[in-house]
Specification:
The chain is mainly alpha-helical. The protein has 4 helices and no strands. The protein has one domain.
Length: 105
């Protein structure tokens, strides 16, 4: 892993960056030069980030069926659980019907 080797004094003093801009005729230097000035080792970090992204996408691609079925199953279980709780709340909240008088029927 590449550590950032830019000290606080380098970030607080913009003169090196301005001098570099003057060297390029007042226009901004190439991105690679600019990044190398402020973030040494940026190419190694970029390679590491690309490698990690590819590995994560490969894992998600291979595990996609399991992920989909798990999310679907958890969603169905949650839906059924909420439906059961709401049914129970309705049963408890609604008034009970009065019993029929004894002489009728």
């Amino acid at each position: 892993m590449v550590a950032v080797r830019v000290g606080a004094a380098h970030a607080a003093d913009p003169r090196p960056g301005l001098a570099e801009r003057r060297e390029h005729g007042g226009r901004a230097p190439a991105w690679g030069d600019w990044l190398a000035t402020w973030l040494p080792g940026w190419q190694d970090l970029l390679r590491l980030g690309i490698g990690l992204t590819q590995a994560a996408l490969a894992w998600v691609g291979s595990a996609a069926p399991w992920i989909v079925w798990t999310v679907w199953g958890l969603g169905c279980a949650a839906l059924l659980g909420i439906a059961g709780l709401l049914s129970l709340l309705l049963k408890l909240a609604l008034p009970k019907p009065a019993p029929a008088p004894a002489g009728t029927a």
